[in-house]
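Recall the central idea of this unit: under ordinary conditions, the amino acid sequence of a chain determines the structure it adopts. In this exercise we apply that idea directly, starting from the sequence alone.
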Amino acid sequence: MMKTKYEYIIIGQGIAGSMMAHTLLSRGKNILVIDQFHPNSSSNIASGVVNPITGRKMVKTWMIDELLPFAKQTYKNLEVLLQTQFVHENKLLKIFSSHDDIEQWKKRQADTEYMPYMGEMIAADEMHPSINAPFGAGIIKQAFGVNVPEFTKATRTFLKSQNRILEENFDYDELIISDTLQYKNIEAEKIIFCEGYKAYQNPYFKWIPFCFAKGEHLLIHAEKLETDCVLNKNIFVIPIGNHLYKIGSTFLWDDMEENVTDAGREEMLQKFKKISSDAFTIVEEKAAIRPAMRDRRPVVGRHPEYKNLYVFNGMGTKGVSLSPYFSTYLADFLEHNFKILPEISVDRF
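Accordingly, the structure predicted from this sequence is:
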């Protein structure tokens, strides 16, 4: 049987695999993506919020000065290519929990390093009455969101139109490794594994110490809640339209079941009720396993023994902001032996 030849095979078509595919295609590379659609993948339920200021201490997200503008421009360019819209630039409101929060916000506002992200404060009496914010809120500037399921769906349609996706689960037993790679009737120079949490099944990278984290989300209908802003107070509340809001998410470190738990649901509802006490109904519940790392850094690089096997994974909750920037890092490494940052390199393990 005649073999079909590619420069790169990409395993997985979540946020990481999709972005890796776009990056290599933009450089004129001949690629094939192998992926079986999975409705409960983390990319299909991701909130997609890029938030430059996080945590109780309101600190800048790692490398956000480089990551954020690069990611936003990349997604804007891909909207044109894919002829669909998935970028949303709703304001992000950090709801204050105390007077200490207000003072911390003011301190950050006066810090040159933080000025690009710390917007104006909104007094409590200026907030919509459907939102519980007795201490007011602050606007986080430059935040944006990506409808990740829409992005990966549009990418899949695009790959299909170019006959660049094989819709099946990758069978490791069918891979023959030599100077070139053979998979069934396919030949390739290199394989990049972008499998998300399914990496635990990968016999070639099973030594990477992934720390998978289950996340749960709810879609609710809240008739009286009025906001077109993303709200953040220990949980995200993301307006979808027609009084629908996505809320989440949770972190469970020892549960690999893709189902919403009573404890997770209750945690999200209690956090939401601190933001709005108005009535609501649950429309949908989802859960997925994130490919997280203990050090909260992605895993990028080449297998130490098999020089034509690569990994691009471990994005955790920040795949939307990390994938565009670091897919170019890996592409530069593949083409020009560009040095990968030690803190994201697979070599750190």
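The longest helix spans residues 64-82.
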